[in-house]
Amino acid sequence: MASCNFIIPFNAPADVVLARIKEEVEKNKGTFNGNGIEGVFTISIIGTLSGNYTVYGQELHISIISKPIFISCGQIENFLKSQIEAVA
Question: Around Cβ 41, how many Cβ atoms within 10 Å?
Answer without folding.
Answer: 22
